[in-house]
């Protein structure tokens, strides 16, 4: 974490979202983009309106299962060090509907920070 100690301004609030690995794979590997319109779809949660559109959807290389596993492995290797560095980070269950996660993060932003002990 030497790189983080060199940053001139550190965030005052940090959030860690705990999401099971299978949910991460489901959310990311099923994302697609329409190369014609630029619209983003999710094959399970926000499918394209027609089969014609679905047929032309593209998956970003970064959303392949292999790439996700590599990124998650890197995250898991560094997460303990990050949590230690950001001692007052807020950890929450990210495997909920987006509105609930947003509400929880919003409350973590608008509520005053705890005072540090002298």
Structural class: alpha+beta
Mean pLDDT: 91
Distance N to C terminus: 25 Å
| Structural domain count | 1
Tell me the strand percentage band.
Answer: 5-15%
What's the total number of strands? 4
Q: Can you tell me the CATH architecture?
A: 3-Layer(aba) Sandwich
Order of helices and strands: HEHEEHHEH
Order of strands, main sheet, comes to 1-4
The CATH homologous superfamily? P-loop containing nucleotide triphosphate hydrolases
Number of helices: 5
Oligomer: single chain
Radius of gyration: 18 Å
Categorize the overall geometry.
Answer: elongated
Please give the CATH class.
Alpha Beta
* Largest sheet composition: 2 strands, parallel
Specify the helix fraction band: 40-55%
Residue runs with pLDDT of under 50 for 5 or more positions = none
Tell me the CATH topology.
Rossmann fold
Protein name: Adenylate kinase 8-like
Organism: Physeter macrocephalus (Sperm whale)
GO molecular function: AMP kinase activity
Family: Belongs to the adenylate kinase family.
């Amino acid at each position: 974490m030497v790189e983080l100690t060199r940053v001139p301004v550190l965030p005052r609030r940090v959030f860690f979202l705990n999401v099971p690995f299978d949910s991460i794979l489901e959310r990311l590997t099923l994302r697609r983009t329409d190369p014609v319109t630029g619209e983003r779809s999710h094959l399970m949660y926000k499918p394209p309106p027609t089969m014609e559109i679905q047929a032309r959807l593209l998956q970003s290389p970064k959303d392949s299962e292999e790439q996700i596993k590599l990124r998650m492995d890197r995250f898991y290797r560094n997460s303990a060090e990050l949590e230690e560095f950001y001692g007052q980070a807020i950890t929450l269950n990210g495997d909920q509907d987006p509105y609930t996660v947003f509400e929880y993060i919003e409350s973590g932003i608008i509520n005053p920070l705890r005072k540090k002990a002298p």
